[in-house]
Amino acid sequence: MWSFFARDPIKDFNYELLPENQEKSGIWTLSRGKRKTTGEPVSVFVYEVSQGTEEQTQLAKAAFKRTKTLRHPNILSYVDGLETEKSLYIVTEPVTTLAAHLKLQAEKGGASDLEVSWGLHQIVKALSFLVNDCHLNHNNLGMWAVFVDRAGEWKLGGLDHVTSNQGESTSLPPPKVINPDLERYDPPESPGGGGDKWTGDVWRLGCLIWEVFNGNLPRASSLRSLGKIPKQLVPHYCELVGANPKIRPNPARFLLNCRSPGGFMNNSFVESCLFLEEIQIKEPAEKQQFFQDLSENLDSFPENFCKHKVLPQLLTAFEFGNAGAVVLTPLFKVGKYLSAEEYQQKIIPVIVKMFSSTDRAMRIRLLQQMEQFIQYLNEAAVNSQIFPHVVHGFTDTNPAIREQTVKSMLLLAPKLNETNLNQELMRHFARLQARDDQGPIRCNTTVCLGKIAPYLNAGMRQRVLISAFSRATKDPFPASRAAGVLGFAATHQYYSVVESASRILPTLCTLTVDPDKNVRDQVKKTVVHTATVSIFMFSATWAGWAVTGVSSLTSKLIRNAPAGSEAPPAENSPVPQSAAGPAPTNTASKGVQQDRSYVSCQRLCPMELTFIRVRDFFFYCIFSVYALNPAYSHTRFIVVFSVRENRKCFTNNHAFTPSGLSKAELAKKKREERRKELEAKRAERKAAKGPLKLGARKLD
């Protein structure tokens, strides 16, 4: 009756076993599991009493006890357990067998020597702990007794056959009794045949090293063949598998030998792992130096190690260790290995907290590396938790922080709300562009404004863009003037024809004689090229802080005429003629195709254009604008500019007069007329003196 009310202890067990991916590990079955309350992953070693012998059950109970009581960072961590009449359950940290891990690594190209060196270091250290500190012999060391956690760290398990090495009697059977195949891993000497207490375990350690590099050990004699064992490890390996048990080193001595200069375990990965294990007792200066050097080494570290070992230490160092900005670079490097969900859970909360820091080094590092995490930030966090702190950088006394703050707006602008983008940000941009004492910052502000223009609302673009870019063209810093020109080109689609003719072109034409060559070049590329009436057929790329190559700003006013055709004059309007004569005929048009010094322009209503002969490397563009504004309906404006190869300023002497002559030619004509007039007056004065008087002597 009481058995009817008795509860099954398995139902009260806090862990659930998952049926997939079960592995055999000696007398145990290794299963994946999870905690019922939190879903936290675990591994569960299960032994079914009904399926084992009495000796196996004895070993399972011994392993249960040893796993529960032995605690060491390099020994499989015990989490929970359950022992019933039918079965035994040992719950540990989530692990997989070493054999399965190496097989998976082989599919990816093989485990690196760095990873293996640290793994062996951990196993030898655990073995040294058992032999020297606990006075125990493992007696079961092999591939089947080593497990690998999520970080890729090796853990010593398989504690079924652990016995005391201080002469205490034991009733546990040796491994070969349970599994005869394990006999090939036994040392050649008979039990108690001489040597120290650790000789059997270090022999099996040598077998483990052989199998890690060469695969399954077929027979004991194969240990003589080194195979793929690294050269740095060979002399120390040979000591482990020496026929004389008295020369086999203590595990602690073997570890020191491998850590000596040039040894297999003397590398940056092992050094970093050892530092992380002792980071809590390190001095702040040592931590700072370690995190600075860590970034250079992370690329060679295993991915899982970075995610599950390095990342938690970085987060802890920032949260509780006051590590500061030095953790940012390695933090973002490790972040590349995380999924979007993991990044949101582990790194984003830390980043949001970092933005509120008053540490300037922290702030500038965040701004410089924003591109690595901006895609994981949601708009709510950007507007409420990040942007309010970032805007303080616009008024910072450090120019580097102000500049990085401006550049960061390229990434933040798409996520900003209406108020932050169109009001707060524009207010700071206007102040920087007009008042900042650093020319590069004014220049980058102009460039950034051109790039984020698509995100502004239409009303703000109407009020801000032309004024801001026009202001930039008057900046004493040449790069700022060039940025203003490029800003007009990059935002061409937002301007009307009237705005282009009445506000933008007059501003740009004054820059054709700018003293800086780069500014003149940008104006040439922006203004000279002809295109269709559509506004700014802009095709060049607006990318980078030093932008080149834009299309025509005058494209909304003129376009190329077909080859061999003339530009018809506007109705009831005379066409200005060059000094060389009337407008070109079809014969002259052929010269246009043969000689690049001619430019063909076609009249587009309401405009009148003509052929002009170019005297230098480039050409003069002359066009008349009609009816772009009602105030201009009866007025003709002749806009003349030159972009010459020698970049000399184009003076008023090159302008044309209503008579068809240039001012220079007209001045020359006037000088010639004046000369003739003076010669005529001299002749008149000479004639007025009359013939010589009598007695006067004529001088030759």
Describe the structure.
By secondary structure, the chain is α+β, with helices and mostly antiparallel strands. It contains 25 helices and 15 strands. The strands form 5 sheets. The chain has a 5-stranded antiparallel β-sheet with strand order 1-2-3-5-4, covered by helices on one side. It has a 3-stranded antiparallel β-sheet with strand order 6-8-9.
Regarding quaternary structure, what we see is single chain
Largest sheet: 5 strands, antiparallel
Average pLDDT taken over every residue: 78
Strand order of the largest sheet: 1-2-3-5-4
- Residue stretches low in confidence (pLDDT < 50, at least 5 long) are 1-5, 529-656, 694-700
Number of helices: 25
Give the total of beta strands: 15
Radius of gyration: 44 Å
**Range of helix content:** 40-55%
Principal-axes geometry comes out as elongated
Organism: Cyprinus carpio (Common carp)
Family: Belongs to the protein kinase superfamily.
Function: Regulates COPI-mediated retrograde protein traffic at the interface between the Golgi apparatus and the endoplasmic reticulum. Involved in the maintenance of the Golgi apparatus morphology.
Keywords: Coiled coil, Repeat
